Amino acid sequence: MSLQTLKLSNKNLVQTNSFINGRWKSSVNTFPITNPATGETLAEVADVGVEEAELAVQAAHAALSGWSGRSAQERQKTMEKWHSLILQNSSDLAQLMTAEMGKPIVESRGEVQYGASFIKWFGEEGKRVYGDIIPSPKSDRKIVTLKQPIGVCVAITPWNFPLAMITRKIAPALAAGCTVVIKPAEDTPLTALALAELSREAGFPDGVINIITCSKAESVGTHLTTHPLVRKISFTGSTEVGRILMKNAAENIAKISLELGGNAPFIVFDDADIPSAVEGAIASKYRNAGQTCVCANRILVQSGVYDAFIEAFTEKVRALNVGNGMDEGVQIGPLINAAGIEKVESLLADATSKGAKVTTGGSRNSSGDLFFQPTVIEGVKEDMKMSSEEIFGPVSPIYKFETEEEAIEMANNTIYGLASYFYARDIGRIWRVSEALEYGMVGVNTGLISTEVAPFGGIKQSGMGREGSKYGIEDYIEVKYVAMDY
Known about the structure:
Blueprint: E1 18-20, E2 23-25, E3 30-34, E4 41-46, H1 50-68, H2 72-88, H3 90-101, H4 105-125, E5 132-134, E6 141-149, E7 152-156, H5 164-176, E8 179-183, H6 189-202, E9 209-211, H7 217-225, E10 230-236, H8 239-251, E11 255-259, E12 264-268, H9 274-286, E13 296-302, H10 306-318, H11 338-353, E14 357-360, E15 375-378, E16 395-401, H12 404-412, E17 419-423, H13 427-436, E18 441-444, E19 463-464, E20 477-485
Parallel strand pairs: 7-8, 7-10, 8-9, 10-11, 12-13, 12-17, 13-16, 15-16, 17-18
Antiparallel strand pairs: 1-2, 3-4, 5-6, 6-20, 11-19, 14-15
Helix pairs in contact: 1-7, 2-4, 2-5, 2-6, 3-4, 3-6, 4-5, 9-10
């Protein structure tokens, strides 16, 4: 499959060059974008470097005063136009996303809607960035606080949500009056470039939005995150890289938001509604073939319902449809690359060698090299690697516990603290467990928690800062105190 074979209505969405200062920037060097479902090369994309990254930062800096000088209402109108264009082109964007990332087309369509929602939400929220007048201890002084845009922002985004992770980061930045430089993941730049084309059509001034495509993530990323003109960095990715970026940000005391690794527990208590818990676990674990930072990484089931849950859950998992994400009805697409599937196999081998038992799946699927059969493995213990590592694949490890206290201890026994889930009906238990779980987000009797109106983010080594909701714009704002004598 090539990009030319996609049935796109808007051919302008197919772009393969970086987007800097309102113009498409080519390069003598390119790198291939591969369809993970078929192994075919979709396109060759401009492989730019530090020089182009510098141009992008300078363009964003030059555009800052003009964009921040517009009223919040003016910025909102441009963002609303962009939002409308994304929805008008939703089918094309979904096709591009599935082609380069592999997720089922129905999930890609959902991501377009989800990603667009942040643009609409923050366009409106930008009009509600209020300052304060503070009662002064002196009768001839007024104390005023102003909220102003922080400046040039850098967003480094992952491959698993190539549209929504961009909009979730840059929508609050744009609404606040900041300008942005985006470095999308090298596996999935086509969706990002399509967004850039639509932003150009929406009328954003040159330099407000810039996108750098490159395979040299380390050198370009270092340049962007240590640049003295960059005042805010937002990154979604691994905890290991997050630590490096924190050190880079310290060089210029730049503000940083990090959404890092996860090890989400999904707890099923004896008093849970088991059919609902099964459906919630399927939704949480197998969306995007398990390649999400908030998907259930450990499923903890209380002994009284353990056998019933395993039986019902395994039956549902066995029925999941694996195949090319472009085909309607497919529920599980490919993993992103060979490293992803090799990691899944390694974690399974470790668990089974230590006594865990696969109840369904456990091997590659015949659909292609990067497809893995949805898997359930029971009898998993905390000394197995998959208990501490992010699986990032369609594998569900099941653990047995006896008491509420044991479940909380097991759930919190990790360096991570992003998302968590549990199913219960006792109201006392719901409050106790919600407060005891050491996670930035808790889903109670639900396996899906993401929405533009709620604060998304983690604690411990899952990061800092929040994206979405009224809190999401605060990371892109500086508070200035003005003392005015008269």
